[in-house]
Amino acid sequence: MSTQNWYERYWNWAKTEAMPSKVPWDDSDAPKDLNVLSLGLQDLCRPLFPVDPEPPKRDSDDRLHKIWERYSRLGDPASTEDVVPFVEEISKSNLLALFPKFDLTYVAQALALARISRFSEAEVILGTAFLNCPVRSALCKALGDIKLWQENPVAFGWYMQACLLGYESYIPYLELSEAASAIGMVELGNRLLNASDILRTSMYRVSSKSATRFIARKDPKNLHAALEEFLNFANCFLPPADILPQSDESNERATWLILCKPNPEGWPTATEKILNRRFVRLSKGG
Question: Do 160 and 241 belong together in one domain?
């Protein structure tokens, strides 16, 4: 395909608004007595929570953002000697009491504990966060990570929730792409990979040491059904499979990701097309 054709195809898709899904998208809040930790793949492949609000999504306070920066500096792999003082620092700071609706403090605390295999404690923290926080997409991604580290296929359901809510990270799309490809859903895998590359504007790939494909093949029938249901909603914001050169054409694809990063003045970005849930809010009169 010529350079001009690639460019036109990409921007013809990117600059159009996402249309509502054919399947009704209910983004009313989940019941207060919902036990999120008991949800399975078939529960998580359709909208369960309100989509993310438009930016700015969260409170802005230096104390909150410093906790997240501190989490990002934990060793890799993290050690108990790193994690325990960090978790204690969060408790002593009283930030969860001062800002009970700020999701990223819970995420940092939970992921830190999960990185030293204290999974049950981490999940309880996120369960509390789901009750308190109006922005839940980062909580979904965090719970997906924790379930993936335990090799539990329900991780993919939580990644689906993160995508449906409009979470800005490429990781849920990338993990779902790997999972879909592993069970033979090649076209969906390509669409999710395109979304991942557009959000990150580079070609990051799941490590060959990752257990993602193995976990996906643990329960391929249920995962296939869940991804099919997820696509009923995600179809309206996922890019087409042929919007970028195939991933194995690495040089050409990498070049295109660079060329498509700047957007013409006044046009919405491709990232906005993937993440914006305005069509859901409009359908609710918001």
Answer: yes
